[in-house]
Fold this protein.
Amino acid sequence: MTVAIAVTAHQTVANHFGEAAAFLIVDPQGNPVARLENADGRQSGCRHKKQLQQTLLAHGVTTLILGNIGQRSLGRLLRAGLAVYRVPTQTLVSAALSGKTPKEALTDPAQGRACSREKGSCGCGCGKPKPPTAAKIGMRGAIATAGLTRLGGWK
């Protein structure tokens, strides 16, 4: 059982899954195995969070400890077979690993934070495709001339 903990730069449990500074991966004995830096922690969108999930699964993570998580991200992690636990924010990593802090098992996506955006407006393309933009006067290129026929008399 490999455990990943979403951590801040101050070695406390991160408040949010996607915005964690890094993920500390430890083995069953509590020994650090790897530290995955989350360089795009401030980047929002489903694509970034899906990449985080794939990276964690590639490292053999079976359990995830964090402060908070959104409903959609939680649902994806649960469907992938990860056990997800929430601890109070500002918890020290050592306290989360030793069991001195109460852990809440998250087993249903509804236990995550409600999404603040409607589906598809996060900019990652997870919702409906964007309609094509209309050509404007002065635009150049194939979009501006699509559907136009040749006018006679111009030289």
The mean pLDDT is 78. The CA atoms of residues 87 and 96 lie 7 Å apart. Helices lie at 46-58, 71-79, 93-98, 142-145.
